[in-house]
Amino acid sequence: MSKAAIDVNNLPYPDGDFFAFEQLLSGKERDRLAEVREFLAREVKPIAVDCWNRAEFPMDLIPKLAEIDLVSPVKRQGYSNLFAGILHAEMTRADTSIATFLGVHDGLFTGSIEALASQEQQEAWLPDIYALKKIGAFGLTEPLGGSDVAGGTRTTARREGDSWILNGAKRWIGNATFSDWVVIYARDLADNQVKGFLVDTKTEGYSASKIENKISLRTVQNADITLENVVVPDFFKLANANSFRDTNKVLKVTRLSVAWQAVGQQLAAFDVARRYAVERSQFGRPIASFQLVQHQLVQMLGNAVSSMGMMVRLSQLEDEGVAKDEQSALAKAFTTARMRESVAIGRSLLGGNGIVTDYEMAKIFSDAEAIYSYEGTQEINTLVTGRAITGISAIV
């Protein structure tokens, strides 16, 4: 096929859904997905690379995100976990940073309130959270604690009358430079259990400073948080967050969401690589006509399709209420490994153009590194799965 005969705006399988997984969604869900895709193409894609280059968050996007109403699609809006997963993949496909912003606000922060707050607390807080009138963050990871945070949380909470006094530090907290609230997980000095607290970021003793010089998710405003004798009224202690087992109820679901992000990242890489291969001419013809390039594209597509197939089944199990922690762990480990391979292939396929954000692949390649590491590293998720299939823990 000659270059002139190729319509780059009308390529086969434009959505990359090679095995038609989206047909498993209801008609209502497919219509909603199409609506969100149009929104992402109009409002997010055009600004994504520029915001990433400048490491600035587009605050004027928040009212638009509020208007399209994306928060809590399962518990509040009644959609399936499968729809929520595919939706999150599509958001990542458009821009990983904006998907991460919503993943923090919706999955981690809102998920903590939905899962661990009392009914009275939920009624007081959730309306503004759902409407994005109050932006949230999730404070778990610490400067000296990541994978070991379950047993190694150093931030402390001390009960004093009708209040709690929080002291410590958190790191890598997305949205925290501009959030209104943050859920802080701290170890109760009285019983040594990790508990959750909703902290108003205007409270005296709370401070957040932006982490600079990132090579990944540059649009996301990650922060170092310091808590110095922060006073939290007892009503703002999450009623059902009384041990790390409770915290893990939130992480199990959000780990699934991050695995869906890995799917979206692969689809983004495939989109850019395929279009480039069709448009880029070398030796007098499109590089898509060369066998090795087609092999690379098929490998990327195969990785994405296999990852999506795993996630479709896991989301169905979540809808049935039978999904297990180790299944989320395997999904996160597998999909992010395939993602890392795919974005590397994509970057290579673009040659020198793959290392500048002008062609988007460099951004996709860099953002994949954050997805690979957060919500449980590759190694920890592998060991969680290994423990499940052997009955023996290899985690120190």
β-strand number: 9
Query: What structural category arises from helix and sheet content?
Result: alpha+beta
Query: What is the ordering of alpha helices and beta strands?
Result: HHHHHEHEEEEEEHEEHHHH
Based on Cα principal axes, name the global outline.
globular
The span between the termini is: 57 Å
Main sheet record: 7 strands, mixed
The share of residues in helices is 40-55%
Low-confidence spans: pLDDT under 50, at least 5 residues? none
Approximately what portion of the residues adopt beta-strand conformation?
5-15%
Query: Average pLDDT across residues?
Result: 94
How does this model look, in words?
This protein has 396 residues and is of the alpha+beta class. 51% of the residues lie in helices and 14% in strands. It is built from eleven helices and nine strands. It has helices spanning 27-54, 62-68, 81-94, 96-116, 119-130, 149-152, 244-279, 291-319, 325-349, 361-373, 378-390; strands spanning 136-139, 156-160, 163-173, 181-188, 194-200, 206-210, 223-233, 281-282, 285-286. The strands form two sheets. Strands 1, 2, 3, 4, 5, 6 and 7 form a seven-stranded mixed beta sheet that branches. It has a two-stranded antiparallel sheet with strand order 8-9. A hairpin with a 5-residue loop joins β4 (181-188) and β5 (194-200). It is globular, with a radius of gyration of 21 Å. It starts with 26 loop residues before the first helix and ends in a 6-residue tail after the last helix. The mean pLDDT is 94.
